[in-house]
Design brief:
- The chain is built from 24 helices and 33 strands.
- The protein is α+β, with helices and mostly antiparallel strands.
- The longest helix is centred in the middle third of the chain and has 24 residues, at 414-437.
- A six-stranded antiparallel beta sheet has the order 13-12-11-16-15-14, sandwiched between helices. It has a six-stranded antiparallel beta sheet with strand order 20-17-28-27-23-24, covered by helices on one side. Strands 18, 19, 21, 22, 25 and 26 form a six-stranded mixed beta sheet that branches.
- Helix 16 (414-437) crosses helix 17 (440-451), helix 17 packs parallel to helix 18 (503-522) and helix 18 crosses helix 19.
- The protein is flat and about 95 Å long.
Length: 864
């Protein structure tokens, strides 16, 4: 009959998807034979039907058939391992499961499922090999009895402390690792013993004997061991050190908390205190934030490096300690003057961070005039490890942040320094925004321009130029923005939008929407869905902040007018703006990702409700262009002959005000056509008053004027239509579309046959050789193999492979499935699941996008 273990393994490991089915009558005679069974054993249906199951097995297993059917009649099913005999006489090791087929074929029918084990050599491993497998495994493995005392462990478990395996025998976990929460771990073991349910992925944090002064994190899995009668005899568990992963999660959580809590106001000292509050206790035990006097007064810090030889007065703007603040140090608001050449001054003058894992216990503190009349030594202050990070924004040093450890024994390491730099970098943005807010005109302008693209990315789909001109001093800076976002498959997204209202609130909300657009673009959603998600975001933001849109407000200027006829004027802002920019914007590194709250203004609600946006996706492979608009003027198109026209685009409601769903249109323009996306400020007259027809006529004439280059044309259009200091912000994005040549795209249709994977690799390799990209052969071959294999294995419908050569080599595999693949992070003992992980590591980026008849999985390798 086979051992209990064989039958149990067969039930647990049986995979119906890989099994060959056949039907048997009550005597074990084959009544139905399938192609899968023929492929496995080489017998045709005519030869197999009418044959007894015993005749298809080796002599030894044929004698077991009566017992097998006796078990089937008694239990209703049987599962176990048998050795079948192929037509050519070769033995085939198979896993068999026999169940009743009453529901479909009458009371005397049995359904037998056979799965070949030729690819699973582990079934035939000897005891010696299996002992080597567990003993030499890098993963800690142990077995405890029902009293939770060790009866066996492998060598790898000793890496966590507690001695070699023989010293653990008869002991419990609390005897081995007193620094862990052994009660919680043993509770998991008792649960497994009582219920038989395995526990997988149980994580705990503590101090093991191998590292008594450092918190470590481990992941454990527990499985009950039963004897031949199903009675529990103990628990088998494995343990893996995941300290690095645990610390990474802590760092991400800390950075997320920093994004939520640092910069909630535009008060400089409060922002400095928020930085100290966030860093304690997760990163440090004691944190001080010292800023230059000029920063606290709202003045612009002097450019260039500070002198390391002169005393530099700093003022304590924030500090936080787990215990009482050391009495010898400064209080909030007090002036701190540090010794020349001391680490704080070196960081202040060089702009570089400083790390000292172990401070000299007898070393004196760095201040020249500490509280109490004398300088204390670090031993008296209880400080044993320190790091100092300069607070820098826009290339200017505003102060320093000092992190100390007192209670924790672990010293700071380079990873802690990197985390501290990330925290301080976020806080530096907020401190600088707060300082600039005291000067309303410059603050609003710099914030808005910082959020615009630093430079438009290089790509093959379009030649692009952009021009932004802010509003004048009286109206103030608004919330206009533009962007070009590279998408998968050499496509690009073009977006122009604006937030109504004015001032720093509108600029901050513009940054939020632009970031949301980039995030949604990365999901490869169609234009109407992108706008739908943006509409939900704006509406939800208003609801959470208690802002109720004025549903009784008059409709925008273009409401009730066909899309090709309307555009709206949303007014301006209230800050002064300097000259315009073309193609680039100031460095966004100091403000991206931070949206400090501003004091309530009359335009707070306007900065959200009624925001407008037009979103365009262009595919240079087939020349198709899809676009949708939400409360925004439709794009214009300059055809290759120089004539300009406006796209007949269905106009959706502004973002956040509700209304019918958004619609998109798809069209094709001749190569060399120029898409022109703009905000409504481009249609306004000299005094900000305009009509739809007049504004569009003026824009059409300006677009049709010849120019030597796209950059010149972009600037000349703005110069012709907009004064130097316009009433409203103006953003113009012009994109001359290109088409990829036939020699840049290769496409193959593939049958859903596993054997075609090799053909797909060969075709891709020939194409790379033709393109002169042989150096990418290894990675491309792996990518093609993995993506095509996944499509054949998991998807349905036709499969197509496409290679695109542009600034990157793009590999795309289309299939008719609707399920996206998921990147797995397999453990050391897992036998599979590494394909997509390798693709993600070896390519620049990869992802999935859905199309009406299926999905496309793609991966890119940079060619620049």
């Amino acid at each position: 009959m086979g051992t209990y273990e064989d039958r149990d393994v067969a039930r647990r490991r049986f995979d119906v998807a890989d099994a060959a089915p056949l039907l048997l009558d009550a005597r074990g005679v084959v009544t139905s034979w399938t192609r899968d069974a023929e492929r496995m054993l080489a017998y045709g249906a005519a030869e197999a039907v009418g044959t007894n199951l015993a005749d298809l097995l080796t002599a030894e297993d044929a004698r077991r058939v009566p017992e097998v059917f006796e078990c089937c009649r008694r239990d209703g099913e049987w599962a176990g391992l048998l050795t079948a005999r192929r037509k050519d006489g070769l033995p085939v090791r198979v896993m068999v499961r026999i169940t009743s087929a009453r529901e479909t074929r009458g009371p005397s029918q049995w359904l037998a499922l056979m799965s070949e084990l030729a690819d699973a050599p582990g079934w035939d491993m000897s005891r010696t090999m299996l002992e080597q497998l567990v003993d030499r495994s890098p993963v800690g493995i142990a077995i405890v009895d029902t009293d939770l005392r060790y009866v066996w462990s492998n060598t790898a478990l000793a890496q966590y402390g507690g001695g070699p395996p023989e010293r653990r025998l008869g002991l419990r976990l609390a005897d081995i690792q007193p620094g862990l929460d052994t009660e919680a771990i043993e509770e998991q073991m008792r649960h497994v013993l009582a219920t038989g349910e395995s526990v997988v992925g149980f994580e705990h944090v503590g101090r093991v004997r191998a590292a008594p002064f450092r918190e470590t994190s481990h992941m454990m899995s527990f499985t009950r061991l039963d004897d031949g009668h199903g009675h529990p005899v103990g628990v088998y568990y494995i343990v893996v050190d995941i300290t690095d992963r645990h610390r990474a999660r802590q760092r991400l959580a800390l950075l997320d908390r920093a994004g939520q809590h640092i910069g909630r106001t535009l008060d400089i000292t409060r922002t400095a205190q928020e930085l100290a509050d966030v860093a304690v206790p997760e990163l440090a035990d004691f944190v001080t934030v010292d800023l230059l006097e000029s920063v606290l007064s709202g003045a612009e810090p002097a450019p260039g490096p500070l002198s390391a030889s002169d005393p530099v007065p700093l003022r304590r703007a924030g500090q936080r300690s787990l215990d009482a603040v050391p009495r010898a140090l400064f209080g909030i608001g007090e002036v701190a003057t540090y010794l020349a050449g001391s680490p704080p001054i070196r960081c202040l003058t060089t702009g570089s961070s400083w790390l000292e894992e172990r401070l000299d216990p007898l070393g004196e503190e760095w201040a020249t005039d500490a509280r109490g009349g004398r300088r204390s030594i670090f031993l008296e202050l209880g400080l044993h490890s320190a790091m100092i990070v300069p607070i820098r924004a826009r290339g200017v040093t505003l102060g320093v942040t000092t992190f100390f450890r007192r209670r924790r024994h672990e010293a700071f390491d380079p990873d802690d320094l990197s985390l501290g730099e990330d925290l301080v970098s976020r806080a530096a943005v907020c401190v600088d925004n707060a300082r600039r807010y005291t000067r309303e005109r410059d603050a609003a302008l710099v914030l808005q321009r910082s959020l615009l693209p630093h430079r438009l990315p290089e790509q093959e789909a379009v030649e692009v130029a952009a021009c932004y001109r802010p509003a004048d001093e009286l109206t103030g800076v608004g919330g206009d923005w533009y962007d070009l976002i590279p998408l998968s498959g050499a496509r690009v997204a073009l977006v122009v939008g604006e937030v109504t209202g004015h001032g720093i609130v509108a600029a901050a909300e513009m940054g939020r929407l632009r970031t949301a657009v980039r995030t949604l673009a990365a999901l490869d959603l169609p234009p109407e869905e992108v706008l739908g998600h943006l509409d939900d975001l704006v509406a939800r933001s208003e609801y959470e902040d208690g802002i109720t849109p004025d549903t009784g407000a008059p409709a925008p200027a273009w409401a009730g007018v066909p899309a090709a006829e309307g555009a709206a004027h949303t007014g301006g802002c209230d800050a002064t703006a300097p000259a315009d920019t073309t193609g680039t914007a100031p460095d966004a590194g100091e403000t991206d990702g931070t949206r400090p709250s501003a004091p309530a203004t009359d335009g707070a609600a306007d900065a959200r409700s009624g925001a407008g946006c037009v979103y365009v996706v262009y595919d240079p492979v087939d020349g198709r262009c899809a676009m949708a608009a939400a409360g925004h003027p439709a794009p214009a198109v300059i055809l290759p002959d120089g004539t300009a026209t406006f796209v007949d685009l269905p106009q959706g409601p502004p973002l956040g005000v509700g209304g019918p769903p958004f619609e998109s249109v798809e069209m094709t323009f001749p190569p060399g056509s120029t898409l022109t996306l703009h905000t409504d400020g481009l249609l306004a007259g000299e005094e900000g008053s305009w009509t739809v027809d007049a504004g569009r006529d003026r824009l059409r004439l300006a677009l049709e004027r010849p120019a030597p280059s796209l950059d010149v044309r972009c600037r000349s259009v703005v110069d012709a239509l907009v004064p130097t200091r316009p009433y409203d912000d103006v953003a113009l994005l012009m994109a001359r579309i290109r088409r990829l040549g036939a020699d840049q795209v290769a496409d193959w249709g593939l049958p859903t046959d596993p054997a075609v994977v090799a053909d797909a690799r060969k075709a891709a390799m020939r194409q790379l050789a033709e393109w002169g990209l042989e150096e990418l052969a290894f990675t491309t071959e792996l990518v093609v193999s993995e993506l095509v294999t996944n499509a054949i294995r998991y998807a349905t419908g036709p499969i197509r492979l496409r290679l695109i050569r542009g600034r990157a080599l793009v590999c795309e595999v289309f299939d008719g499935g609707a399920t996206a693949p998921h990147l797995r992070h397999p453990r050391t003992t897992d036998e599979g699941g590494r394909g997509l992980l390798l693709v993600s590591q070896l390519t620049q980026r990869w992802g999935t996008r859905f199309v009406p008849d299926g999905k496309i999985i793609w991966a890119e390798q940079s060619l620049t």
